[in-house]
Amino acid sequence: MRAGVGGIVGFFNGKIIADCYNKGEVTGLYAGGIAYAVMGGSNYPIMIDKCYNMGEAAATNSGGGLAYSLYNAQIKNSYYDKETSKQDKEDQKFGIPLGTEDMQKMSTFRVAKVYGE
Length: 117
Description:
Blueprint: E1 4-6, E2 9-12, E3 16-22, E4 26-32, E5 35-39, E6 46-53, E7 57-64, E8 67-71, E9 73-76, E10 79-81, E11 96-98, H1 100-103, E12 114-116
Parallel strand pairs: 1-4, 2-5, 3-6, 4-7, 5-8, 6-9, 6-10, 10-11
Antiparallel strand pairs: 9-12
């Protein structure tokens, strides 16, 4: 089993992950629905923007609906299904947790929000 995994990327230190989604199961010791770890530097913050996850983040130790770990990074306009992902920590620093019913309503996604460091 892999240590840190993500539905789109494992470790990411680029500039932006945008306009993406994951519906598949992500399995590892530590798992994030979109990314395992998103790490920016002091001069280049990183962002996950307009992404969503509906797949299970099946982490043996710990997981996150969108990301397991953020450093000098933020999540903007991004959501995860807390029921299908099995991540219901309600920590909005790591994205907006919603129920399956709310994930299926267009009206849910009309408000822009930014969370993170």
